[in-house]
Amino acid sequence: MLTQFHPTAHLTVGLTLRDETRPESNNIALHSCVSPDAVLENRHQLAAELGVPLSQFVLANQTHSANFYEVTKDDWGRGATSLETAIPDTDALFSYEPNTVLGVFTADCVPLLLWSEQSGLIAAVHSGWQGTVKEIVPKLLTHLIEKKGEDPNHLHAYIGHCLSQDRFEVDADVAQKYQELGYANDWIKYREETGKYHIDNGATVKEQCLRAGVLEAHIEQTAICTFTSERGFSYRQDKQAGRHLGFIFRT
Question: Which SUPFAM superfamilies does this chain map to (predicted)?
Fold first, then answer.
């Protein structure tokens, strides 16, 4: 099961979902699975649904870093069927190569998918709380705008399913990292009943996009919480949880 939409005739953006009818409930991640064969079956099924060979997928070994990587056709197939071939130590991929599927794995963390109809840019970003406070999204957007010549007015963003503020509970040390950003205070709330700070990571990522110049009208954000939704994988709820794949490609 997956959610996908087509902003243009040549662009597909989406996210896989938990599906009890699929092997391992449609887990897409080799790094968090019981059976690698089950995950590969799910990946092949996804490739068939998208009409793009798995050999044209590019995936990374994500480390909650602020590192990004530009994908070319030479990278086709990296990480698609093996962890060993994945782009190392990277949490954001971008490309101008058509017929290339970029993907990021998430379970509670924010999947951000970016594109430009003007330039042909596509990008996929994994931003958990560590990526957000390290500002992976602003760093990638700065690079795209300043080094690749992207016009922020032509950038579009999709923020997929992630942990809601109600379920994202953290201690003071993590809350302080968000406060130090200088623009996330509106999405930090302390609750006496839990003794925790509750943070809206998705809203913070959206603010990072806005601050980089992405127009609010060009940002779509889902309201689905991975913890409470039957369609979501949640690491907070189940440490053995599978992973969604946020994906984007253009023809």
Answer: CNF1/YfiH-like putative cysteine hydrolases
